[in-house]
Amino acid sequence: MGSSRLNTALVAIAHMQPTLGHFIDGKVVAGGGAPSEVFRPDTGETLGAINDATADEVNAAVAAAKRAFPAWAATSGERRKEMLHKVADIIEARAEEIAAVECLDAGQCWRFMAKAAVRGAENFRFFADLAPSAADGVSLPTADHLNYTTRMAVGPVAVITPWNTPFMLSTWKIAPALAAGCTVVQKPAEWSPYSARLLVEIAHEAGLPAGVFNSVNGLGETTGKRLTEHPDIKAIAFVGESKTGSAIMRQGSETLKRVHFELGGKNPVIVFDDADLERALDAVVFMIFSLNGQRCTSSSRVLIQSSIYDRFVEGIAVRVRNLKVGDPFDPATEVGPLIHPRHLAKVESYADIARADGATVAVGGARVPGPGYFYQPTLYTAADQHMRIAQEEIFGPVLTAIPFEDEADAIAKANDAAYGLAAYLWTSEIGRALRVSNALEAGMIWVNSENVRHLPAPFGGMKASGIGRDGGDWSFDFYMETKNVALAMGNHKMQRLGV
Ligand code: NAD
Predict the structure, then answer these.
(1) 377 within 8 A of 367, measured Cβ to Cβ
(2) Atom of ligand 1 nearest to the CA of 466
């Protein structure tokens, strides 16, 4: 079973070998830049390489997006809707192949990727349906004027995506951009570039005109930088680390680009002693150990009320020891490999940091011997909120447990972080749920739930976790300019100068 999925993935990327170039103006471009190796996370073998786009190649991709923009923006919403549904149809038809490529390239587990590919199709359908109304505005009449608003697509946009769940995240950005009437130049992450190429190919198979969606490969500091500095790119949608967000903001500042940032997190899950502890335990373990812990919304800090701390931590420890680590293609596997040796070294370094800061490595804390970039699911206990393991985004299968005394202490500890992406809260008291939710500094809060997304709801973070929101109309607000038109309804009084 696992080997047939591996084979599916290898076949799906065979035409991208040995070196993956770019997709510009509806055509594959081999690329003349320096190659950069792509590794297979589960074995550590070289999977292939990408070409780092040259300045000319980035310019060609932006020029194609600029040329295609007027016609795409003028295409009716109904027609855009049809085409984007077609993209979704093909994604659904090829979902197994896409999921297998994510397992191979990003090391993500089949049990989660099978759903993630389908979610990619749902993202396209959701924004496809909104395309006909994307330009709609509001009417704001006064006694003598009718003010009405309308929206128009902002222009060619850059979409820069990370390596953790590359396909789903690409659809999450690109579907609303295309539905809004923008043209796109994507730069996928250099460590997991293959599924993004599948997406651009699928979009063209679905009938997207040449130049509407382009993809350039390369490194962040070269290709990414060129793209974000390009004067013809009007906006940058970026998902990645907070410090990269700062760099991109600087790069785009000269040309006054608008930015939409979905950045890192150190998300707390707060467990009160009155919670349904069995369900809370399921959620805590799921939200940090699924997706190999490489998930922006992972609950990487568990804040546990001191009255239940020992009991709840023991419950977590039992589960963590029991997690099935291994072959990402095997549907029974719960935790797969980390993406890259550099990332593995980073995640691994926190065990020594935890010990030096006085925490206990209760479970795991080391890489798994053998090939691939596997790291043991890890639980740090006896931690306090000031330690680096409680403050920094580790982005691996690593959970830090911290006790708290009461509601005020829980809120103070939850908010004591540079990040503010998501927070999770477990309690059976409704008043407490409301009070704590009001006080939490996070863009998204789930009460008695894990991360269940509703596409019309806003997605995004505050503080170092981001700028802007995705989802529903929030996405269109970013990819579109709002215009106000004021029409005089009669001969209102006007000042006459120089008469
Ligand atoms: P990263 O910031 O290192 O890279 C993301 C992308 O930015 C890559 O394509 C990279 O090549 C590019 N890049 C790097 N430097 C650049 C530059 N100077 N100019 C332009 N582009 C540049 O992030 P990563 O390590 O790939 O991904 C992990 C991070 O992403 C984590 O911090 C995680 O929390 C975050 N993330 C956030 C969300 C969210 O929705 N908030 C979702 C997924 C991942």
Answers:
(1) no
(2) 41
User: What would the pLDDT profile of 81-118 be if each residue is shown by its tens digit?
Assistant: 999 999 999 999 999 999 999 999 999 999 999 888 89
Q: Exposure string (b/e) for 76-107, b if CB count within 10 Å is 16 or more? A: ebeebbebbbbbbebbbebbbbbbbbbbbbbb
Q: Does pLDDT of 1 surpass 70?
A: no
Residue 61 in contact with ligand 1 by CB distance below 6 A:
no
Please work out whether the CB of residue 453 comes within 6 Å of at least one atom of ligand 1.
no
Pocket test for ligand 1, best of 195, 244, 340 (most atoms within 8 A of CB): 244
From the CA of 263, how far away is ligand 1's center (Å)?
Answer: 7
Per-residue pLDDT of 319-329, as tens digits, reads 999 999 999 99
- Domains, the chain, in order of start with CATH, read 2-263+465-483 (3.40.605.10), 268-447 (3.40.309.10)
C-alpha dihedral sign at 292, 294, 298, 300: positive
Q: Are strands 398-404 and 301-305 parallel, antiparallel or unpaired?
A: parallel
| Active-site annotation holds for 296 | yes
Average pLDDT, the chain: 97
The finding on whether 217 has its CB within 6 A of some atom of ligand 1 is: no
